[in-house]
Design brief:
The chain is of the alpha/beta class and about 270 residues long. It has 2 domains: about 120 residues; about 130 residues, 3-Layer(aba) Sandwich (Rossmann fold). The protein is built from 10 helices and 4 strands, in the order H-H-H-H-H-E-H-E-H-E-H-E-H-H.
Amino acid sequence: MEMGKAKKRIYISLLLISIAILAALATAGVSLYFNRFTRFYKWTLFAILVILTALIVLLSLGLAATVLTLWHVKGFFGLERLINFSVNLLFPITVALGRVFHIPKDLIKSSYIEVNNNLVKAKNYRLKPADVLILAPHCLQRWDCPYKITADVKNCRRCGRCDISKLIALAEERGVHMAVATGGTLARKIVMDLRPKAIVAIACERDLSEGILDTNPIPVLGILNIRPEGPCVNTKVDVKKVKEALEFFLMGREKELKADEEQEPAISCSENTN
């Protein structure tokens, strides 16, 4: 839990710095407007400043709504699109700032994924299984497996040597779609063909962050793969996290509420015995 909070703080901090830089640019523009330019250039600069100021206001509202949502304030205040716009538009700037502050790129992208997941979970979903997709990377399959599963996951022989068989079993149990992609191009084609209303995506930091941006506004819960042998070869995934993500999209907060209700009697009993 603490690790997740730390990840969120990194991305939110970079978002704040991004807006501060835009505000500084606007201030510099105002200074130039009143001091250095002829009338024609003043009007041109004035138009640019108006647009930049409006953008800063929108981004600030979006960031404020993002922070409030991450602090578990109910709902999006009707600003869901603005939140997505702000977080996604500033993403390239945060990555660039990370280079300036020597923050590893994967750490920034992992923080972005954490923020995205929390924003998705702030909304309640109850989707049909046919509207949900598990999208897995090809690197989950054993590198020496002769069976091609990117065309059809049913080609998997379910030998148990990799996590693909577990994911297929989970997809069949829940009745959701599952597909395996070799990269972003194939992943986009799969999404366009199946047109899911929600995606549980498994990948590395780079592919997940790019995939979330590409599929916007489709809600995506991103799960980082595990790389015991290094990137892109014989990777693994925590299937329990995939299952929890599926249950969230299929059952929404209902499951969490039931879990809380089940815990309450146990607490009251312990209090009575004391």
